[in-house]
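U., I forgot to send this yesterday:
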Amino acid sequence: MNLDVRLEAFADPIGRLSSNDAGGIGFAYAPDYLARNDALQLSMSLSLTEEPFGDFETRSFFDNLLPERDTARADIIAKYGLANDDIVGILFHLGRDCPGAVSVLPEGAPPVKLPGDLSHDYEPYSDALLNASVRALYERRPLPVDAQDPSPLAGVQSKLAVTRLEDGRLASPRNGAPTTHILKVPQERHERDVDREQRAMTLSRACGFDTAATEVLAIDGVPVLLVTRYDRQITEGKVQRLHQEDFCQALGLPSRLKYERNGRPGRRFDVHRVRDILDRCVDPISERQRFLEITLFDTLIGNVDGHAKNFSLFHLPGNRFRTTPRYDVLPTMLDRQTTDQFAYDIGTAATLEALDAAAFDRFLVDLGLGTAAGRRRIAGASLSKAIDRMNAAVAAIGKADKDFGDLVATRIRTLCRNMDRAIPEPAASMDTFVRS
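Result:
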């Protein structure tokens, strides 16, 4: 079976995904596409070359285009009698709804992803349909028959891809137009996640990180988080998708290896592999520093879910790369049922309790930052910056959400003790967050 692989910005297919009778799959760029001066790599792990890619590289990238939640995939497998690892067969049915600018379609099929015009390519939701859709996601029921999620989204949270029109109404796209926002709907028993993610994302922006814009709304009495899509460009009412990929795709890792603990040396999401990505960006030094600061920020707010699908890259003209704005920033440790293990080790430390000066120095080595003397300077400055930032915010966090404030204060104290630093006020005097 052969399928066309498309990117929204290009009128013709950019390549072909194929399978053989033995179950192997492969991908090859189209010769006409390779001849273009503006050709973009489909992935950092799939460089522009005339040579076709084999099963290993191809499967890792295209498997990441399928939803992480297995419902749609399982339905297609059952309906058509496909094997679970028949990526090409599954994408034959689901490839029109791949995330981002990519689509995978039957050979010769017309494009299904096109730029949108806010004036006529979107159908506003009625209040009744929007309320019913949010209520269904909140209660974990199927969406109403009249509702369509035009852009199935990765991750385990319930989400609806929508477009916000210029008059503020939410709408569903027509004619293959892009959505502009993601509506995150909490589980009924986790309503507070909305305010907590909003607070974490706001704090991320306040700390100087480029972070997706967010807004809390109430729809049918349900608190929801409206997140502006960073992978969209809106110019004079015209909406376009921007080509991007997450770190799983860039590293050629299947989604099940998005945590370091699930992989093995040489084939896992770890700081050595992250450094490989950052070194290929347009400003490697700034990218490494940003990753260092993000790591400390997430550690102190209790976000241990910074896995490989929560970091992404923009593909820029000339096959250059830069990291995207932050997204999915949440103090996951407030859920006492979750692990306290980092998504990727910080040096030799898999948890905050193990993060001491030696482990942090190993992290800086892995990230490629400086000589021994340089690392001591970087460690001192970066730790002071992160701790001071969080300590300045912790009282206000605690006033709005005591558990969140106590969590941050507790983690400030732990990090300071491990690094043999004085514990600042007010973090020193706040209550201890207990997970058991």
